[in-house]
Amino acid sequence: MATGVPKTKWGGNNNNPTQPDSQPDQSLDVSLSYEGKRTNAEILATAPAAIKILRQSDEAENRLYYGDNLPILASFLYDDSIRGKVRLIYIDPPFATKSVFQSRSQSDAYLDLLVGAHYIEFIRQRLIILRELLAPDGSIYVHLDENMAFHIKIIMDEVFGAGNFRNWITRKKCNPKNYTRKTYGNVADYILFYTKSDTYVWNRSYEEWTQARADKEYEYIEEETGRRYKKVPIHAPGVRNGETGKPWRGMNPPPGKHWQYPPKTLDEMDARGEIYWSPNGNPRRKVYLDESSGVPVQDIWLEFRDAHNQNIKITGYPTEKNPDLLARIIEASSNPGDLVLDCFAGSGTTLDVAARLGRRWIGIDNSPEAIKTTLRRFATGLERMGDFVAQRPSNPVQPMLPNLDLSASTAFNDFSLFTTLPYNGELNEALKQRFSSSAL
Ligand SMILES: C[S@@+](CC[C@H](N)C(=O)[O-])C[C@H]1O[C@@H](n2cnc3c(N)ncnc32)[C@H](O)[C@@H]1O
């Protein structure tokens, strides 16, 4: 397999007219142009929301907001405890599907009707403020599907810098579908991972070895110890003049290569039995299975399908994401105690998982159903998917209100609740019932 090598390894003959010798001109960066694109300065000057506290938790640093996320995010620009302090942002915004979404209990949840430039600008305005809120070593993950992922990738490059793009993650979202349409089944969605800079929190994720995979990859067993191992070269590309370019045991590194270790270290490894010598005298390094942390996670994630059978537990909110997917992201890109933000919080998946993993969190959503679902989730947890089917409405006017007992000592009492929207209607009643009247 031919692979590219770093540009510095190029021998110098610039005989390819499509590859200029000089650095590319930064002004040639790609950007999206459309009507209604506001300047960054205009967006950062968005009037902050007037925010009303519905419930103040004494020690809580965790915050749940009901309202449009743009003015709420703008208000964080003036909060020193948030601006530049958010270690991880995950957002799962509407996908421009031209759909309305209802929960499993058939309550209206949210509208996804913005399309084209309106959609792009809606997301872009939030991204520009989110970048300001991110810590210098912070990361952002934006979950999208094939409708707008390509457009938003260009916007992310504009806002965060193309050099801060880390991964385009493909997630398998559901089981294969039996399409009647003349297309391939659509089982993937996408997560764009960017960081604010080159220095960012990164806890590499590993998958456990399966027996079959380990047996295939580590195919040898050391006679003396019974340890499983694989053989890898002890040289690497590139000529070096130092110790690693010198002969070892009378052998030079192969042409164009250097030893991975200085000869003295290779001697020590050999003495420990960590070098395998082929019958014709070629040395290879032994890499042992029991020293492997697992298989480093790649950018195709197959194991985090959303609700897919009757036995798993969910809130019943439409498009709610698999908590294990959020756990992978939160563990990889934040540490305990860090601040995690999701401003399209829906059923509160990110917030719930962040709390369980010892992170602080901020969640925002402008759907009363989302806020109610999150409160219910915090109070009573998830329900088996089958129960939603069984329960489906014998009494359709019965609202699925959170049965909150905020005096109970659960981990999820530890949050404050805020609103920016006119404070009336069903949510108001729900909150009045559930929170002490003094807090309202
Ligand atoms: C795809 S859902 C998020 C689902 C969530 N990840 C979960 O696991 O439940 C998108 C959410 O964004 C919310 N939303 C859309 N526009 C918003 C806005 N301008 N401000 C705040 N929330 C918004 C919707 O109400 C909806 O709950």
Set down the secondary structure blueprint.
Elements: H1 40-44, E1 52-55, E2 63-66, H2 69-76, E3 86-91, E4 99-102, E5 108-112, H3 116-133, E6 134-144, H4 149-160, E7 165-172, E8 188-195, E9 206-207, H5 211-217, E10 220-221, E11 228-232, E12 235-237, E13 257-259, H6 263-271, E14 275-277, E15 283-288, E16 295-296, E17 300-301, E18 313-314, H7 323-333, E19 339-342, H8 349-356, E20 360-365, H9 368-380, E21 383-384, H10 385-391, E22 416-419, H11 425-434
Parallel strand pairs: 2-20, 2-22, 3-6, 3-19, 7-17, 19-20
Antiparallel strand pairs: 1-22, 4-5, 6-8, 7-8, 9-16, 10-11, 11-15, 12-13, 14-15, 18-21
The structure holds S-adenosylmethionine.
Question: Would you mind describing this structure in some detail?
Answer:
The protein is an alpha/beta fold. The chain has two domains: 40-205 and 297-439, Vaccinia Virus protein VP39 (Rossmann fold, 3-Layer(aba) Sandwich), CATH 3.40.50.150; 211-291, no CATH class. Helix content is 25%, strand content 22%. It has helices at residues 40-44, 69-76, 116-133, 149-160, 211-217, 263-271, 323-333, 349-356, 368-380, 385-391, 425-434, and strands spanning 52-55, 63-66, 86-91, 99-102, 108-112, 134-144, 165-172, 188-195, 206-207, 220-221, 228-232, 235-237, 257-259, 275-277, 283-288, 295-296, 300-301, 313-314, 339-342, 360-365, 383-384, 416-419. The chain has a ten-stranded mixed β-sheet, sandwiched between helices. A four-stranded antiparallel β-sheet has the order 10-11-15-14. A two-stranded antiparallel ribbon has the order 4-5. Helix 2 (69-76) packs parallel to helix 3 and helix 3 runs parallel beside helix 4. It is elongated, with a radius of gyration of 27 Å. It starts with 39 loop residues before the first helix and ends in a 6-residue tail after the last helix. Mean pLDDT is 86; it is low at 389-411 and 436-440. S-adenosylmethionine binds at residues 68-69, 92-94, 110, 317, 319-321, 344, 346-347, 349, 364-367, 370.
